[in-house]
């Protein structure tokens, strides 16, 4: 299941070997400068190296009923909240019996999130590591809809 917490906690939990480039980027990159001028609905990608990229996103959190589970096969996600907070619903891929349509080019498939999900609450400075076995429904609101700024790191497996 997903691993989550502050970046410092994730580094000390032994996640540094596979996700070290992500932690290095978070510590050494001017994240505020990347988000400067971005508005809800905006996205931009920064290529870190051949195996890692960072997708900067600004969005309005959404109601739980609109959540869709997504999954990946070739990449793990590290979802880092820069500003705001959200709930990410999670379940193990073993809990799903559907065979979803897979978009190989984008490495993504979607399933309606009508399953019982565990909820991760992430606030600014926290991240979740989501492996291919961790289906996830991100961007869900806490209380009322608010703007959030997040970086989704794609880490090639």
What report would you give on this structure?
This protein is an alpha+beta fold. Helix content is 17%, strand content 48%. The chain contains 2 helices and 12 strands, in the order E-H-H-E-E-E-E-E-E-E-E-E-E-E. The chain has a 6-stranded antiparallel β-sheet. Strands 4-8-7 form a 3-stranded antiparallel β-sheet, with no helix packed on it. A 3-stranded antiparallel β-sheet has the order 9-6-11, with no helix packed on it. It is globular, with a radius of gyration of 15 Å.
List keywords for this structure.
157 residues; alpha+beta; 3-stranded antiparallel sheet; globular
Tell me, rounded to a whole number, the average pLDDT: 93
Shape: globular
Please give the largest β-sheet: 6 strands, antiparallel
Question: Helix amount, in percent?
Answer: 10-25%
Uncertain stretches: none
Specify the number of helices: 2
- Which class do the helix and strand fractions yield? alpha+beta
Radius of gyration, CA atoms, in whole angstroms: 15 Å
Using DSSP, what is the number of strands?
A: 12
N- to C-terminal separation?
A: 17 Å
User: Per DSSP, what share of the residues sits in E-state strands of 2 or more residues?
Assistant: over 45%
Order of helices and strands: EHHEEEEEEEEEEE
How do the strands of the widest beta sheet line up side by side?
1-10-5-12-3-2
Please sum up the structure shown.
This protein has helices at 7-28, 31-35; strands at 3-6, 43-49, 52-60, 68-71, 75-83, 85-92, 102-103, 108-112, 118-123, 126-130, 134-140, 147-156.
Which SSEs are present, and which pair or pack?
Elements: E1 3-6, H1 7-28, H2 31-35, E2 43-49, E3 52-60, E4 68-71, E5 75-83, E6 85-92, E7 102-103, E8 108-112, E9 118-123, E10 126-130, E11 134-140, E12 147-156
Antiparallel strand pairs: 1-10, 2-3, 3-12, 4-8, 5-10, 5-12, 6-9, 6-11, 7-8
